[in-house]
Design goal:
9 helices; globular; Rossmann fold; seven-stranded mixed sheet
Length: 345
């Protein structure tokens, strides 16, 4: 039986011919990294290869590592296997990994989205025979609004909070979501303050692309300074002693999980904005069709439901277990218990 070009084992996605792993979750000799989120770029590998934009990001997160960067579309060969990295549109520096050997082409998406968010290089269709796709939001219930509509709602919310004398506290992940929020906030409304974890990442990102001015919150920051302004913080800050400085405040969360009514209630969030750095249902389907791939491997997310639908559409589809944990995996677990209309499954 022919050994597949890429296969999944207990360390990650492995290319035996090149002795290289893609986004491995256990320490290995050679790793090609799709992007900087912690579930895809882990500490402990001997050698890292990633898109050059992602180099300072993973070095900031992982410390002193042996990493080399390549340009978009630049090919490099390892034992006859040809690799290249192509924009995934997920967050800044995020890449799809194209693998070719003897005319056979596989593409591993990492995490990706098809909407141009104005900060990450937009997603690029890469033709292939086998497509390894995430399906974090692989349910028909997930259907994103254009981001300009979402940001209109966010800025309107901020203005109303300011008029009411409240501080707006908006939660988003420190890498990716936070910078996307910053890029599209209306700074004419007020100042933007940031949690230290987000500001530390902003300092790295500013070396790559411009961001609006922000103000780091420190021990010396007075709550009077924050009143009426915007605070961007990681979700972990919610309910912590740190947030008490914001009183009086109103909380908001920007996440694809805000699609579900129960998500906001469980997280005790005042306002939810549906804004994701992953594909929605239609984005996944259109991306798969555009690749021309006949074989689809579904990872992390609603894998069983999504792969079953693909099989019904005539694809050779299957699922594979990974140790990638999409943003707020616990939220997915909770939401899976909510009822979905039968015509949406």
């Amino acid at each position: 039986m022919k050994t597949p070009l890429l296969h999944f084992n207990n360390k990650g996605i492995y290319c035996k011919q090149a002795d290289v792993y893609l986004d491995p979750w256990k320490p290995v000799k050679n790793a090609i990294i799709s992007h900087g989120h912690a579930d895809h770029s882990r500490w402990g590998h001997q050698n890292y290869i990633t898109q050059h934009t992602n180099v300072p990001i993973i070095k900031h997160r992982l410390g002193d590592i042996n990493v080399s960067g390549v340009d978009w579309g630049e090919t490099f060969s390892i034992n006859g296997v040809i690799f290249s990295l192509h924009p995934a549109g997920h967050i800044i520096g995020s890449a799809q990994i194209r693998v070719e050997y003897k005319g056979e082409v596989w593409v591993f998406t990492g995490d990706y989205k098809t909407e141009d968010d104005g900060i990450a290089l937009p997603y690029e269709v890469v033709k292939c025979h086998t497509f390894i796709t995430e399906c974090t939001f692989g349910l028909p219930a997930f259907k994103w609004q254009p981001q300009q509509e979402v940001f209109h709602d966010i800025n309107t919310w901020w203005q109303q909070n300011r008029d009411d004398g409240n501080t707006s506290v908006l939660f988003g992940y420190s890498l990716g979501k936070a910078q996307r929020l910053l890029k599209h906030l209306d700074t004419s409304i007020g100042k933007i303050y940031t949690h230290a974890a987000i500001e530390n990442m902003n300092e790295v990102i500013r070396e790559i692309t411009p961001l609006p001015d922000t103000h780091r919150i420190t021990r010396e920051t007075k709550k009077e300074e924050l009143k009426g302004n915007m605070v961007i913080a990681p979700p972990s800050a919610h309910g912590s002693p740190w947030i008490k400085k914001m009183v009086p405040y109103v909380t908001g969360s920007a996440s694809g999980w805000m699609t579900f009514r129960g998500a906001r209630r469980r997280r005790a969030i005042d306002k939810g904005f549906v804004l994701s750095d992953h594909c929605d249902w239609q984005g996944l389907l259109s991306s798969i069709k555009a690749t021309g791939a006949e074989k689809i491997i579904c990872t992390h997310g609603y894998t069983d439901i999504f792969s079953r639908f693909l099989i019904e559409q005539g694809y050779d589809a299957r699922t594979e277990e990974t140790q990638f944990e999409e943003e707020n995996a616990e939220e997915k677990k909770n939401n899976s218990q909510e009822k979905t209309p039968k015509n949406e499954v």
